[in-house]
């Protein structure tokens, strides 16, 4: 692995080989049986203990995340805090996974929610331990065992998490980590008959490959994929606040965020005011060393990714570059703002996954909705307005799994998260995630 801020090699590892992946899955199947047969209170306490373990090691795990991904340390700490919060949240769910009774003729009918068995969690490099553990916590609460594969470039935090898990008083092999590239080690998971479900977070292209590979063994799938989310800013909004919050709405995590509001749609009458304010507010973001507590934006995560983002920018003319990057090595890129590009261009329609925002004017509500829905994605988005009726009217018509009004936030542990269209399907987080980690069994008793 390479430190994205300095280009220094920080560590090396060997990929897990096929027989070790197979052994991990067989052991996980044994661990799952033991876990599912524990008393509910023991499972609840087990998840709480994981939360406490993460809290005790928050600085260490956050430092690893910051080093590996180039993430500002203050942000990394928040992400690791969310790992502990997820285990706490789902510890409370263990004894609240209910079936129902259904009125029928001739007897009594009831449903049960049963664990699936072994769940494979395949995680991306932008929020490595956070995404992996949000999914793992829900899977464990429902009585499953978990095998996690972090992205090949960013395994440090997840590898350390696995070492810490081995010190916990939990069934052996309940949570395991396998390391290596997606097309080899990831594929071993997506095709292995012992894996009952794949919880995949990554790009839409890889999501399609995972779906194909998982088809032969009919695995359950949750696919959390790419996005090109729109922030729709109406003239009747609190423009000052919309401007102040827009830079981190798109450039947070250096734009490597599936929910980044990378398309900012602004009502034509306030377009110029917005653009001027947005450029000025973006130029104030502090770009610098990830270890510095004051840093707001770090480098991009890898050389290859820097090249990918640059390839999107190369054909674009007249992008405004706001902010300055540090001198010297590192995969740095300042925020780029592309004003009123062609609505059909790649920069408007494809996921760049870097510090690039496009700003487009719209004429009225109808135009804004059409523009918001004009990509293959439907993950997140925002509506900025002071008119409640308009907020709800527009929210009902934007094709997106998550929307916020007068806010650019997307993820809360308590609420369902997932995509429409090619942003994927299934829901993580909240109580809704439990449906995806259980089978629904129906039992009829003749009376
Ligand atoms: P990616 O698709 O390249 O990789 C994701 C994971 O899949 C990695 O662990 C990788 O090793 C693995 N993988 C790759 N090929 C595989 C294969 N053939 N079989 C099995 N596994 C395979 O994505 P990335 O570049 O790591 O992450 C960026 C993408 O993730 C962006 O598109 C972003 O929008 C998306 N993302 C989505 C969410 C969400 O919740 N919707 C969250 C974070 C990131």
TrEMBL record:
InterPro entries: Ald_DH/histidinol_DH, Ald_DH_C, Ald_DH_CS_CYS, Ald_DH_CS_GLU, Ald_DH_N, Aldehyde_DH_dom. Keywords: Oxidoreductase. One of its GO terms (molecular function) is oxidoreductase activity, acting on the aldehyde or oxo group of donors, NAD or NADP as acceptor. Residues 2-443 form the Aldehyde dehydrogenase domain. It comes from the Bacteria. The active site is at 224. PANTHER family: ALDEHYDE DEHYDROGENASE-RELATED. Belongs to the aldehyde dehydrogenase family. This is Aldehyde dehydrogenase. It comes from Mycolicibacterium murale. The lineage of its organism: Bacteria, Bacillati, Actinomycetota, Actinomycetes, Mycobacteriales.
